[in-house]
Amino acid sequence: MSLNILIIGGGAAGFFTAINAAENYPEAQISIVEKGNEVLQKVKISGGGRCNVTHACFDPKELTTYYPRGAKELLGPFHQFMTGDTMQWFEERGVPLKIEADNRVFPASNSSQTIVDLLTGEAKRLGVEIRLAHRVNAITKTSKQWTISTNHGDLTADKLVITAGSNTKIWNLLAQLGHTIIDPVPSLFTFKINDPRIKEIPGVSVTNATVQLVGHPAKTTGPVLITHWGLSGPAILKLSAIGARYLAEKNYQYNVILNWLSRSTGDVQQALEIIRKKEAKNKVLFKSPFQEIPKRLWSYLAQAAQLTETHRWGDVSNMHLKQLSSQLTNAIFNANGKSTFKEEFVTAGGVDLKEINFKRFESKILPNIFLAGEVLNIDAVTGGFNFQNAWTGGYIIGKSLNL
Hints:
This protein is α+β, with helices and mostly antiparallel strands. The protein folds into 2 domains: 238 residues, FAD/NAD(P)-binding domain (3-Layer(bba) Sandwich), CATH 3.50.50; 152 residues, no CATH class. The chain contains 13 helices and 21 strands. The strands form 6 sheets. Strands 12-15-14-13-16-17 form a 6-stranded antiparallel beta barrel. A 5-stranded parallel sheet has the order 6-2-1-10-21, covered by helices on one side. The longest helix is centred in the first third of the chain and has 14 residues.
């Protein structure tokens, strides 16, 4: 009698599970149930339509630091299937990848369709059945099998895999079966800020700023981008992920501290004193003395320090220098809300990780139910890390289903 495997969710983790299970158990009957009319939608839009497959971080312990939730639990799984394994898996199946300057990994084609075509093509080749427009209404245990009630009738499975992402309905069904669900809150979002220091300069960026939330210990350093709606860029997105629950509790009314130079206030003040002497005859607003600070941003920060177009460096008082160094290293911005990062939406929340056996990604509460991807309370910063979680979980489940 062949093994009957049913996978709920036609995303990255679902397809990766199906393909690896089909390769490990060629006699198994494997089906993917997808509520929508298309599969792999998140893969299609990720990375601006290029699909950020993974990240070129090849140390498991270092890799876990990119996961605000799930770091401890993923260390063991990453020793089984890592970023390098992901790259090898795709390249062996005819999809060459490339590592970009920021260590993000993309298909050499620069098109997410390449990844979609590989996953759907491999699933078809291996005989995986795809059931579209199937909404799951109930999950029940019958004898040694699971029964899944859908809008197209009942399906049965010896092994049930749930890779449905941030799906409230599926979370509710799992809660009814005894799992604890950590309430989801948004993660990976940009900060909505209306402030005269940045309002008129969308598109300006600083490559190595340090950002911190007032009242929260998290601090990140990296590129910050000024946008039409506030602040974005890797440092902001990482901070939003780390502080996701804190920001939700604050109802997204919060203050952000920007150190544009990632240097101490005292160090910057000393540098400004030297500049005041060297540039005494030059006007302050018209040229940034720090190559890291673009001219337009410099002008607005200087104005916030009460300096005007008529001020020359020789006219700058010690009080002005103190205010200017504060604007450069300790600028406080009031944020009022958040904006979704591009078309991608990641949540912090899902099935409590204490209830999962991460050697197999199997439920400790419901035998023969396996879970991977964002259905679990695991999320990561931007850069290919959420996909790596999906690939790792899918791979391990795919070889664990007959144990």
